[in-house]
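User: My instructor asked us to take a sequence, write out its structure as tokens, and then describe one feature of it. I'm not sure where to start. Here is the sequence I was given:
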Amino acid sequence: MDTTKKYIKMCEEAREIQQEHNIPTEGDWFVDGGLIEIFTERDSDDLGEIEYRRKYSLWLPRQDQLQEISGMNWVDFDSAIKQFGDSLFHNKYSSKKYKGSHLERSEEISKMVTREQLAIRVIMWENYEKIWDDKKQEWVRLFMKSIGNKEVL
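Assistant: Let's start with the prediction itself. The structure tokens for your sequence are:
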């Protein structure tokens, strides 16, 4: 499970995903006051704890939860994750000739970004047409949409 500062920031900025998670369940990961906590069966019996988590803690979705949100089966979701990893790799090395093997390339991708970070990128792109901007540290919409007479990002 990714508990890096980058993934925590990505989750914090993914308001759409945070809003979808209404009721904490056993095994959920949260950030609360800078501490990483796992929601337990004992917590699930405490209505006050459930309400506190909903309002004040940041949910860190696991890969299986992100796959569920995506609506894709595991094969398609895994394929999408690999495609995102390949595109990040290509962007980093596009101006260079990379001579490593496929395995070395996979290892290089895993140094750049975790599977959770790739998975949340898939969700934000497929469901909300947003990409992660490393410089701004936020999700940004790439395309204009027409709403009424106005075009908005």
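For the description part of your assignment, you could build on this observation: The longest helix spans residues 74-93. Try explaining in your own words what that tells you about the chain.
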